[in-house]
Amino acid sequence: MKRIAACALALWALAGPAAAGQACVDTLPTPAAVERGLRLAQRTRDRLAAADAEVALVARVGRDLSRHGLRYSHLGFAWRDHPRGAWFVVHELNACGAATSDLHDEGLGNFFLDDLFDHEALLLLPPPATQARLSALLAAGPALALHGRHYNLVAHPFSTRYQNSNQWVLEMLAAALAPDGAVASRAAAQRWLREAGYRPTTIRLGTLERLGARIARANIAFDDHPPEHRFAGRIDTVSVESVADFLAAHAPGTHRLIIRLE
After folding, report:
1. 3-state DSSP call for residue 209?
2. How many domains does the chain have?
3. Beta-bridge partners for 248
4. Cβ-based neighbour number of residue 181 at 10 Å
5. Between 187 and 30, residue with greater pLDDT
6. Do the domain assignments include residue 8?
7. Per residue in 189-239, pLDDT tens?
8. DSSP state of 127
9. Total Cβ atoms within 10 A of residue 115
10. pLDDT greater than 60 at residue 25
11. Would 33 disulfide with which of 14, 29, 142, 238, CB 3.0-4.6 Å?
12. Distance, CA of 148 to CA of 157 (rounded, Å)
């Protein structure tokens, strides 16, 4: 996993206008944004410590997705580094709008220093047994085996052609929740998710919106979606909310916490 900075493009860049040929430009956050991001990170760390957690799912509000009935845009795993007692986030990032992604690990502070739409975090705390399985997966090869380098912001949840960041988290959950050895590849994860009743989020996009997004951005594609759905403007993909609903149904005892700065 790469411990480097990247442009963390949250799901649903479609929520705002796309600009063709837009360069990746680093912008310095304002002191106020840094202060609020670090305060949110500190509160999140305090809640994780109070829960004596080992692994949790953590989400941020990177974009305004209210148009799609969604709140959170980007999801990762908050994982405790036992030797140092520190917390860091493991997540998939798409660097600067490219058509590829990598797995990154970074501190909680960095996770909340992105250009956030709102300073609110969602924590999902699975039962201890699920946390232990996730920790083992993150520490070994399965985390990389379930990563798809070809990135698509609106990747279809039952296609291995592309992957988005929330989809990697979902497929890791499949490996943690399925019987031992049942999930060793992305295809196996998706088969298990379908059989287990995972329900993606459906968004509606018009023809011009789909065409404009595809032309303007290398990290948006629709050719992994069934033609009958695509032409009807029905785009099924993995949202934070759909992952949270699935985890609650398949890992009873999962705690949901919202951390918000006023």
Report:
1. helix
2. 1
3. none
4. 8
5. 187
6. no
7. 999 999 999 999 998 775 434 433 443 456 888 889 988 887 777 889 999
8. -
9. 13
10. no
11. 29
12. 12
Please write the tens of the pLDDT for every residue from 145-165. Answer: 999 999 999 999 999 999 999
Structure tokens that stand for 19 in this block: 């600009």
The residue behind tokens 């860091």 is 88
Q: What are phi and psi of 125, to 5 degrees?
A: -110, 100
CB-based burial, 13-43: b 16+ in 10 Å, e otherwise = bbbeebeeeeeeeeeeeeeebeebbeebbeb
- Position 76 in a domain: yes
Asked, for residue 166, whether it belongs to a domain, the answer is: yes
Beta bridge partners of 2: 104
**Which of 258, 260, 254, 261 shows the shortest CA–CA distance to 53?**
254
> Hey, which residues does 202 pair with through a beta bridge?
236
Contact criterion met (CB below 8 Å) for 248 and 171: no
What pLDDT is stored for residue 30 in this prediction? 85
**Spacing of C-alpha 86 from chain mean position:** 21
Q: Comparing C-alpha atoms, which of 151, 138, 142 is closest to residue 105?
A: 138
Q: How many other C-beta atoms are found inside a 10 Å radius of the C-beta of residue 82?
A: 9
d(CA 180, CA 75) in angstroms, rounded, equals 24
What are 144's two structure tokens? Answer: 């990389």
Dump the DSSP string for 132-200: HHHHHHHHSTHHHHT--SBB-TT--TT-SS-B-HHHHHHHHHHHHHSPTTS-SSHHHHHHHHHHTT---
Q: Provide the domain limits for residue 118.
A: 13-260
- 46 is written with which tokens? 């305090």
